[in-house]
Amino acid sequence: MPVRVTLDALIVRKGLKARDLAAEVGLSETQLSLFRSGKVKGIRFRTLARLCAALDCRPGDLLDYRYDPTDLTPVDDEEG
Fold it and tell me: 1 with 39: CB under 8 angstroms?
């Protein structure tokens, strides 16, 4: 998937510990770790907003996209 989570780089730039960020945002360390590793299929907008507020950033600072033409191919098991 060409959407990548870039949260780790932001955490390092800000000099934070993931454990502290998880506590501030109200996530378990496991939930934050799964998001950081890209192993989740989605994230609630509220959680994204809390991460942005805690990190003083925008959603685009947490995610990156690299164009892949197959993203426009319909997939039967995905919902719009």
Answer: no
pLDDT score of 11:
94
- pTM of the model as a whole: 0.81
Q: How confident is the model at residue 62 (pLDDT cuts 50, 70, 90)?
A: very high
Question: pLDDT band for position 1 (50/70/90)?
Answer: low
What is the DSSP code string of 36-77? HHT--S---HHHHHHHHHHHT--HHHHEEE---GGGGS--TT
Between the CA of residue 78 and those of 7, 25, 57, 67, 74, what are the distances in Å?
25, 29, 30, 19, 8
User: Measured between alpha carbons, how far is 6 from 35 in angstroms, rounded to an integer?
Assistant: 10
Q: How far apart are the first and last CA of the chain?
A: 16
Task: Please state, in angstroms and rounded to a whole number, the distance separating the CA atoms of residues 10 and 8.
Answer: 5
